[in-house]
Design brief:
six-stranded antiparallel beta sheet
Length: 311
């Protein structure tokens, strides 16, 4: 089932943390197992933000030296960043098992991501100049409060509420997905791809690495790969409607844009509101209305439709 939502402000920043929390909480009934946010703040030149975890929430219940192992993983992460020439400006704990690092770096992002991911127990959730990806178990208000997302200033965001049907209830299986190792590309998706393994093997032959077995991650990597080959976002999304098989509605975000695509059968729901200043999208209208006190008009995008908006 699951629920997806997106919002983008044109030409200004807003409290997208609180807005996306409200939208996703309205979709809680579509997926109570986990909630995820991809928030796009104001980028600073030559500065990256990395969100990563060193354990699963469930691991914290085990005892058996887990805190010591987490400490060792964090120390190894800082050592590896320093060895690559990255300068850490801030290293803030988000929870007992996840961190937010702000750092400057002028080297190859794939090398950095691969080196960090080789630390046992460490998973990078996102790296970007604007993107910060947060996901965990629980509903939107629980996760937002846990990670102090209210007050997060930015231009756009996408989010997901998950009902686990084919994989575990854990952070690794939660959405959104960052397009490893591309800076600032993230995706949320409602549906199922029937040619997942065919396209994944194609992406792997091109040198891409996957962090999960979730088809939503494939969409993120597919779009980022097309853009890396000099296609713009809209062209890559139009191509995806032809090349992705199955039923799907997805939202993709980059550092300054938000896009939406539906398959040609349009089986998965999406409701859209658009004004000169703001665009909101969600699996159900109630999510958009949760952040608008006044009456608004919404509509459903057409089958096979692709739309892209600029922040």
């Amino acid at each position: 089932m699951c629920g997806i939502a997106g919002l983008i402000h044109r030409g200004r920043s807003s409290d997208i943390g609180a807005e996306m929390t409200s939208m996703l909480q309205s979709l809680k009934h579509r997926g109570p197992d986990s909630t995820g946010f991809a928030l796009y703040g104001n980028a600073v030149p030559d500065r990256y933000v990395m969100r990563f975890k060193a354990a699963e929430q469930e691991d914290m219940k085990s005892g058996f030296g887990i805190q010591e192992r987490i400490r060792e993983r964090r120390e190894e992460a800082e050592s590896r960043l320093a060895s690559l020439g990255a300068t850490i400006e801030n290293a803030d704990p988000a929870t007992d098992y996840s961190w937010r690092y702000v750092f400057s770096y002028d080297g190859d992002m794939r090398n950095l991501a691969d080196y960090m991911e080789d630390i046992e127990g460490v998973e990078i959730l996102s790296i970007g100049k604007a993107l910060e990806l947060v996901k965990d178990l629980g509903d939107a208000e629980t996760v937002s409060s846990q990670y102090s997302l209210s007050g997060f200033q930015g231009t756009h965001a996408i989010g997901h509420t998950r009902m686990a049907t084919e994989s575990d209830v854990d952070i690794r299986s939660a959405h959104p997905y960052w397009a490893y190792p591309f800076s600032d590309v993230s995706v949320v998706h409602n549906g199922q791809l029937t040619n997942y393994w065919t396209l994944r093997r194609e992406m792997e032959r091109r040198g891409h690495r996957f962090m999960s077995n979730c088809d939503s991650e494939l969409i993120a990597v597919y779009i980022a790969d097309r853009m890396a080959r000099d296609e713009d976002l809209e062209s890559a999304m139009v191509r995806s409607v032809d090349e992705l098989d199955g039923v799907f509605t997805y939202l993709v975000a980059t550092s300054d844009r938000l896009g939406m695509a539906k398959d040609v059968m349009a089986a998965k729901p999406m409701v859209l509101y658009e004004s000169d200043e703001f665009v909101g999208l969600a699996s159900e209208e109630v999510a958009i209305r949760s952040i608008f006190p006044d009456e608004i008009e919404t509509w459903d995008p057409y089958h096979g439709e692709v739309k892209v908006w600029q922040a």
